[in-house]
Amino acid sequence: MKVGFYDGRCVAIVGASRGIGQAVATRLSGEGAELILFARDRDGLLRAAETLPGKVHVFSVDVTSTEAASAMAEAVEQSLGRLDALIYSAGILPLAPVSGMLTEEFEQTMNVNFWGAVRAVQGLVPILGRGGMRSIVLLSSLSTHFPLPFFAAYCSSKMALRGFAASLRQELAPQGFHVGLVSPGPVDTAMVKGKLHTPLYRVPRWMPLLRPEDVSRAVDRVLRRRRAEAIVPGWLAPLAWLGLAQPSLVMGSYRFAVPGWEQAVREGMNRAIPGEVSPESRSFNQNHS
Ligand SMILES: NC(=O)c1ccc[n+]([C@@H]2O[C@H](COP(=O)([O-])OP(=O)(O)OC[C@H]3O[C@@H](n4cnc5c(N)ncnc54)[C@H](OP(=O)(O)O)[C@@H]3O)[C@@H](O)[C@H]2O)c1
User: Fold this and answer.
1) How far is 139 from 71, CA to CA, in rounded Å?
2) Is 1 within a domain?
3) Which is one Pfam family of this protein (predicted)?
4) pTM
């Protein structure tokens, strides 16, 4: 019988109904993990669970609700009774000029991408402390290294997540915890569908469109090696680190690599692509496109 790295281990994945979270579930389940999958869409979670070879539990939760932390903790206690690792992959990506984005949508982005992660950590750290691996992996983004125009809400949320992870890592290290970030470039999921290569989201030709499986492999590696961060694709890491240290320097050459950059930014000023479509931002989109 094949022995997987995660045999006998329990992992919670938040944002697992599709995309990267689902790909992580597939990879870890194939390596023996018993999973609990969280997202809002229960049918999506059940569909994702059906494809997995290992034991899996699903629990519908909206990470923006104030009860999310206790709801996730209760679900883990009841279904697994213990936990080795938490992967936080829930996220939304609204794109709009700052002057045109509704404050409500900015807040929603922070709420899902940042506060949801805080809630998951607060709810699940006490249970993780009883497990063997004591690992937390948060999905960040290359947009923290390459801060694109019209990404202000998303970049803010992922920068906040970066600060949260950096401090949490120091805080929990004496208890043997690992806190890792995974920072991918554009990935072919519902999140970027219809957005990539529009004036609101321009990338250089050399930037590959990743598959969710490429990211799940990086999450697996960060977990196994207890690494602080992985850039996906790995060959972009030197430029990514330079981008974090000197964003203006790197964005200068990034702009140069995208033909018609200035024109696209001017065009983007009159558009918006909501991540979580509120009626008001829908009308902004219709009125300005
Ligand atoms: N795709 C990319 O290009 C890319 C690049 C870099 C980083 N990332 C990051 O990778 C992570 C996964 O993205 P993805 O591409 O897999 O996106 P996706 O396919 O749109 O999946 C997003 C997941 O988040 C869940 N979610 C959204 N709002 C939620 C809420 N309020 N409560 C609970 N769950 C919620 C969704 O489930 P429900 O709708 O069922 O709730 C879904 O399972 C995100 O953190 C994203 O920022 C993505």
Assistant:
1) 21
2) no
3) adh_short
4) 0.94
